[in-house]
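Deliverable D4.2, example record:
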Amino acid sequence: MKRPNKALKSGDRSRALISEALQRASAAIENRRPDEAERIARDVLAKNPQQPRALHVLGIALLAQGRTQEAVTALEQAARLLCDPMIDMHLGMAQRQVGRVADAIASLTRATEQDGALPIAFHELGVLLFTQRRLEEAETVVRRGLGVAAASPELSVLLGGILLDRGDRANAKVAFARALANAPQHTGALYGIGATLMDDGEFARAAERFRQALARDAAYVQARIGLGTCLLELGQRDEALAHLRAAAKAGPQFYGKALRAIVSSGHGQLWLKPSAAAEFLQTD
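Output generated by the structure prediction step:
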């Protein structure tokens, strides 16, 4: 009878211990204990410095702690050791956060081109290309993502936003409607439908969609600005101004949008100068 290979058994035990440790680390991340996950991953790496899964978990744990540059280093090591769509996806997310946009696009592209690519990878890449104003590429990526995950509301909402930006309101509406069909209370889809209706001059219907979005998320400032804009056009001045003033106070990035909504309104031009609008929005 052939005796068991002791070295093989030892290797099996080692792999099992590593797998068990990384499962505990992943559970710690899911339970919002990234510091614990980091400790476990580093324990594994102390004995196995080139363990790609441990490097991946370490990178995720560091990302969760806001230590992005350290995360990039760990994830780059993992990506060199193992071709895996999740590693490339997390690497791309980390590279984007440190401002390495070209590298992030390359990593996320690899993530979307491998077997087992996740919908979130297509979404991350689509958003990044969108923010870089590479709209045609962004649309292509998101459509490929929908081929993998047709029911993803996030991808449909992103596609709608891209199409709306490209001036294709008809197909944008279709994309937002698809998102709502799969997730009837999705705030992004509600806002998107509202935006297309507002662009078409259907202010009452648009206002209703913006109200629905705000009912789901009262902090959705863009929806509040949209609602205020529609109410101005509908002649409901007091409520409109209350929403726009609240939006302006949500942050400096929203002040200009709220001001433009007031001064560009057909009704607003009749009763409010830009200087008066600015003073109104700045008044407590």
